[in-house]
Write a structure and sequence with these properties.
11 helices; binds zinc ion; alpha/beta; globular; 19 strands; 24% helix; 7-stranded mixed sheet
Length: 457
């Protein structure tokens, strides 16, 4: 596979004298297989340059596939300016994460409404097909694509591409799930281990590394990684090469050089074979099979293109949290996603609710003072095959069984909405994720414990 970077900047385009070498355009990567299959990942302003190249190469009868990680501006702003969309006879397939209330097509059309744009998606001359994705696997010609949700305040998919005997993984935008892992001292477990499994053995990992470890604490919850974390992740996942991208708009070329030099020195001191560099606009990487052979193929048989609409009729969220402010914010987040929000404070209330309106997701706090947390968890487990995933609200992660994910307070409305959306969609696929329901170490009692993970290593 051949990979070319057309946009490497995160958040906002940043052209100018300080970003000449690494580039000022927002995210866009071109991937080509030996057979000629064209896959474009993300549509930041870098997409414009790619479009011109494709047109100059004879832009009629073009067919390509576009994978969109999520629909924040820096990943879609190039769409209205992609010249091959305006050529009759061209065929493009656009894939992106499925929403709950809005299709990918509607979301992309949103940024081209009359108020924002002189043209609308209806004016594209090419044949364009839109595909809403969930977690799973699908094929684009000779490329096997596996998708997995990342941790970001918008529903975001990472993409693992396998073709030509090599694996390329793209993860933008992403922040470690656990604060302890993000800080660099926690072990990979639960969803962070699942993220590492998704990357496992990649010949090339392209990963969000917007911040440095020193900057990260003040940016926690913004949905991005530090370069130090990404290198640690790549080593843990036994990736062969990592390219840092989604460069911060304030990061100069010289500052990026210094970051990469420091990481290289650390890897060399550790005699690590991992190659590290920062993505630069225009750079081409030929990804060749390594002596170790291809990495193990990822993903199961579940099609990422499956329509999960019929399974979404069960659209309610059970909320059991003591703090009225948190409860209000969760209710708002659930309703914004088009879900009913139901409340309960004890096991009996939970059982009555489950009989009337079985939830797709349960969000509970682990308040040791509220002794019925265990009772509510018991009532959830009694639902057996209809057991919803449980997300816990807490100030920090604690050791507890049965918790699938955490909402660490304080959290933003966007983060809450994204967690809710991801878990409702996962539940709707009826595909219990590959990892154990025990996302943390053994607890003294189910769904409740007060021992912080960070204290135990
Ligand atoms: Zn971004
Ligand atoms: Zn984003």
């Amino acid at each position: 596979m051949q990979v070319q970077f057309w946009g490497t900047r995160g958040s906002i385009p940043k052209p100018g004298p300080t970003t000449i070498r690494y580039g000022g355009n927002t995210l866009c990567v071109e991937v080509r297989t030996a057979r000629g299959t064209l896959v474009v990942i993300d549509c930041g302003t870098g997409l414009h340059g790619l479009g011109l190249k494709l047109l100059l190469a004879g832009g009629k009868g073009l067919a390509g596939h576009i994978l969109i990680s999520h629909t924040h501006w820096d990943h879609i702003q190039g769409v209205p300016f992609f010249a091959p969309f305006f050529v009759r006879g061209n065929k493009w397939d656009i894939y992106g994460p499925k929403g709950l209330n809005q299709s990918l097509r509607e979301t992309l059309a949103g940024q081209m409404q009359h108020t924002y744009s002189p043209i609308t998606t209806d004016e594209f001359g090419a044949t364009i097909r839109y595909h809403d994705l969930v977690e799973g696997t699908f094929d684009i010609d000779d490329v096997k694509v596996t998708t997995q949700y990342l941790n970001h305040p918008a529903l975001t998919l990472g993409y693992r591409l396998e073709a030509d005997g090599v694996t390329v993984v793209y993860c933008c935008d992403h922040e470690p799930f656990s604060r302890a892992v993000a800080d660099g001292h926690g072990e990979f477990s639960g969803l962070d281990q699942r993220h590492a499994d998704f990357i496992a053995g990649a010949d090339l990992l392209i990963h969000d590394a917007q911040y440095t470890a020193a900057e990260y604490p003040s940016k926690s919850g913004w949905g991005h990684s530090s370069s130090e974390f990404v290198v640690r992740l790549a080593r843990h996942a036994k990736a062969k090469r990592v390219v840092l991208t989604h460069h911060d708009p304030l990061r100069s070329d010289d500052a990026l050089d210094r970051i990469v030099e420091k990481l290289k020195a650390e890897l060399s001191a550790d005699r690590s074979p991992l190659l590290v560099s920062a993505a630069a606009e225009g750079n081409v990487i030929d990804v060749k099979p390594s002596n170790a052979g291809p990495s193990q193929s990822a993903g199961g048989k579940f099609s990422a293109l499956t329509s999960v609409e019929p399974a979404l009729v069960r659209r309610s969220v059970l909320i059991s949290v003591a703090d009225p402010k948190v409860a209000k914010s969760l209710k708002k987040a659930a309703q914004a996603e088009g879900l009913r929000a139901n409340f309960c404070s004890n096991a009996e209330g939970a059982r009555t609710l489950f009989a009337k309106d079985p939830p797709s997701l349960a969000i509970i706090d682990l308040d040791i003072a509220r002794h019925d947390d265990a009772g509510i968890c018991e009532a959830i487990r009694e639902m057996e095959e209809n057991e919803p995933p449980v997300v816990a609200v807490a100030e920090q992660e604690v050791e507890a069984d049965g918790i699938m994910d955490w909402l660490i307070t304080p959290f933003t409305d966007s983060y809450a909405r994204t967690k809710i959306r991801a878990w409702v969609l996962r539940a709707a696929t009826s595909r219990v994720p590959h990892y154990s329901r025990k996302t943390t170490r053994t607890a003294s009692r189910d769904c409740a414990s007060s021992s912080p993970i960070s204290d135990s290593g």
